[in-house]
Design brief:
Layout lengths: L6 E3 L2 E3 L6 E5 L6 E6 L3 H18 L4 H30 L3 H21 L6 E2 L7 E9 L2 E5 L5 H15 L2 E5 L6 H12 L7 E4 L3 H10 L3 E7 L2 H13 L3 E5 L4 E5 L5 H13 L9 E7 H17 L18 H16 L3 E4 L14 E4 L6 H4 L6 E7 L2 H8 L7 E5 L3 H10 L4 E4 L18 E2 L12 E9 L1
Parallel strand pairs: 7-8, 7-10, 8-9, 10-11, 12-13, 12-17, 13-16, 15-16, 17-18
Antiparallel strand pairs: 1-2, 3-4, 5-6, 6-20, 11-19, 14-15
Helix pairs in contact: 2-3, 2-4, 2-5, 3-4, 4-5, 8-9
Length: 476
């Protein structure tokens, strides 16, 4: 049975009761599978007041208490993973195995935060005189407003919740209305784990209206957003007007560099798999493939072969490797990239068209022979389409890879440690993967530079955006 959708405010579940409701649609079938209530302005104010009231107590909670709750969340997540994942497949579309992997991986995030929140330390600074004491303490910033996307609905939300709760903050979170089940499930997990009322509040509604109301409130002291670059810039501007701390994890257009001395078949197979995770609807998805001239033909053959043989369909069916795109407009966007590629002289090596008349399916697509200013080379596609192009020299490919304003993730494959070191330092990106994919683990920071945002989630840096640094100096 699909998740019972609701608002979660001050420890209570709120459903229709005259509120505006919107249908939730299965992107694989087009069927309406649920209805989601939107928060009224009074609901938003109640959520803010609850978070403010809870913060007065939660900020003084013992780190061991926060750790215990996060640990319990991890345990409950593993117990409920299959049901949560099935609902993610129903409203978001990704294959069930991917959804299970997302949920189980998030249990590890909760465990990691449970340990790290016990190690939020200050420090004592030696003074210039014996009768002076200098101490630095880290204090929770306050009530946080968070906005999370639909592509990894469980993962993106739990990162923000665990960091805020672990730091001693409270939160009002607006999840993705198109794929809401994961965030409702998260609220149930924290509720059942014993998190006090008001520490976590879940609201839904028209995104612009909700974000503007929450960010403008003097109660909110921190804003965290994951989503597109244009929306992120708008959210950051709103936060900046009120001098509020912000973390922005925005879009990307990840380059992949394959040098002649790389294990070409391995690189092609690995990147084909990574590219089609979540139907390419992933901010760190590899998209611009630069392959050195001698290896170009072989890479293209293997890469396109994997794309061409991939089973696409309903994520609940056995053997499906790629599900639908979330929206019909994402399918139309893919068609726009293909049309522009053809107009610019590009060659479609695999895919290039939608699949069937039911659901939002688009074939994994490989395009070659594109100039660097083609639409697919400069705009994030956010779908199962990739451009493959040759390069000659190290300096040339680094310049092409760094030419865009994005800087979230990058990938490189080489058999040379010298080249690996050089390219890892040369790429302008918040995360660089050499010969494998090593991002998004609990212990490593996740974040970008340039237009891809600022601040990190995960790693030791995860609490930085949720803590104030205070100097205390005392004369004895």
């Amino acid at each position: 049975m699909y998740e019972d959708l609701a608002l979660y405010i001050d420890g209570e579940w709120l459903r229709g009761d005259g509120r505006t409701e919107q249908p939730v649609v299965n992107p694989a079938t087009g069927e309406v599978i649920g209805t989601l209530p939107h928060a009224t302005r009074a609901d938003l104010d109640r959520a803010l007041a609850a978070a403010e009231r809870a913060f007065a107590t939660w900020r003084h909670s013992a780190p061991t208490e926060r750790s215990k709750i996060l640990r319990h969340v991890a345990e409950l997540t593993r117990e409920r993973a299959r049901d949560i994942a099935r609902n993610i497949t129903l409203d978001q579309g990704k294959p069930l195995a991917e959804a299970v992997g997302e949920v189980m991986g998030c249990a590890d995030h909760a465990d990691w935060h449970a340990e790290e929140c016990r190690r939020i330390y200050g420090r004592v600074i030696p003074a210039k005189a014996p009768n002076i004491r200098q101490m630095v303490v880290r204090e929770p910033v306050g009530v946080c407003a968070a906005f999370t996307p639909w592509n990894f609905p469980f993962n993106q939300a739990i990162r923000k919740i665990c960091a805020a709760i672990g730091a001693g903050c409270t939160m009002v979170l607006k999840g993705p209305e198109d794929a809401p089940s994961a965030v409702v499930a998260l609220a149930r997990l924290f509720h059942d784990a014993g998190l006090p009322p008001g520490c976590l509040n879940i609201v839904w509604g028209v995104p612009a209206e909700v974000s503007e109301h929450l960010i403008a409130s003097p109660i909110v002291r921190k804003v965290s957003f994951t989503g597109s670059v244009p929306v992120g810039k708008h959210i950051a501007a709103l936060a900046g007007q009120h001098m509020k701390r912000a973390t922005m994890e925005l879009g990307g257009h990840a380059p992949v560099i394959v040098f002649d001395d790389a294990e070409v078949d391995r690189a092609a197979g690995m990147m084909a798999h990574i590219k089609t995770i979540n139907a390419g609807q992933m901010c760190v998805s590899p998209t611009r493939f630069y392959v050195q001239e001698k290896s170009y033909a072989r890479f293209l053959q293997v890469f396109a072969g994997v794309f061409g043989s991939m089973k696409v369909g309903n994520g609940l069916e056995d053997g499906v490797k790629m599900g639908p795109l979330l929206h019909r407009r994402r399918v139309e966007a893919m068609e726009g990239f293909v049309a522009d590629a053809r107009a610019r002289g590009g060659r479609i090596v695999a895919g290039g068209e939608r699949i069937g008349n039911t659901g939002n399916f688009f074939a994994p697509t490989v395009v070659t022979d594109l100039p660097d200013d083609a639409k697919l080379m400069v705009e994030e596609p956010f779908g199962p389409i990739a451009a493959v192009t040759p390069f000659a020299t190290f300096d040339e490919v680094v310049a092409r890879a760094n030419a865009l304003p994005y800087g979230l993730a990058a990938f490189a494959f080489t058999g040379s440690s010298k080249t690996a070191q050089a390219v890892s330092h040369a790429l302008e990106s918040g995360m660089v993967n050499i010969n494998h994919v090593g991002m998004a683990t609990p212990e490593t920071p996740f974040g970008g530079i340039k237009d891809s945002g600022y601040g990190s989630e995960g790693g030791a840096e995860t609490f930085d955006g949720y803590l104030n640094t205070k100097l205390i100096t005392q004369l004895d």
